[in-house]
Amino acid sequence: MLRRRVLRYAAATSAALHLDGFALWAQTADFPGPHPPTLRALAGVLLPASQGSEFLDRQTELFVRWVKGYRANAEMEHGYGFTRIQNTPAHPAPRYGQQLNQLDSVAQKQHGSPFAQMPAIEQRTLVEATLAEAKITALPPYPGGSHVVADFLAFYFRSSEANDLCFQAQIGRQACNGFAGVEQPPSRLKRRSA
Q1: What is the reported pTM?
Q2: CA atoms within a 13 Å half-sphere pointing along the CA-CB vector of 171
Q3: Which segments of the chain have a pLDDT < 70?
Q4: In this structure, what are the phi and psi dihedrals at residue 169, rounded to the nearest 5 degrees?
Q5: Residues forming a β-bridge with 75
Q6: What is the distance between the alpha carbons of residues 25 and 93, in angstroms, rounded to a whole number?
């Protein structure tokens, strides 16, 4: 009799609790789910492919790590003079999974193969159509959950590494460099051998 009462109480309690956080954690832990090839192919379309395959693999892994480490409703950094504190939006992992799935579905319907197996030019065309459909016309200031394509772009192109590559110098824009050597220009990036 006592066992039934305990089980009934446990069932009622677990039903009353919101397990949304657990479900979100499970989706986040699983990101990118069945879509690693799609995400890696997306890197080939969005990022500077001239940097090579290892670079694209590393950036894909860094983006996945960023998504898994994302904290929804975390206090965001604010600039000097801004008194209003902003928080990060809801976790993007579930939406990213849906968007990667949609990218694969459209590729399958239009080209008869998953996104990762399409020719590069067709991948680019599909990505451009996806951005147009999502009404994304500018690079967001930070990855904010709007769309996996825009956020992957923002994740890399707003990074210190992208800044260094752009200027071909080791600037370290987001690193605390101190005052030592400030009178010297940043050292040049080493040329990547082909």
Answers
A1: 0.77
A2: 13
A3: 1-29, 192-194
A4: -145, 150
A5: 87
A6: 9
The full set of domain ranges for the chain reads: 20-70+91-167
Q: What's the one-letter identity of residue 26?
A: A
Are the C-beta atoms of 152 and 42 separated by less than 8 Å? yes
Question: For 45-84, how does the pLDDT look when each residue is reduced to its tens digit (9 = 90+)?
Answer: 999 999 999 999 999 999 999 999 999 988 888 777 778 8
Q: By the 8 A CB rule, do 29 and 22 touch?
A: no
CB 27 within 8 A of CB 94: yes
Q: What are the CB-based long-range contacts (under 8 Å, 24+) for 102-109?
A: 103/38, 103/42, 103/130, 104/35, 104/38, 106/130
Q: What is the pLDDT of residues 152-169, one digit of tens each?
A: 999 999 998 988 888 888
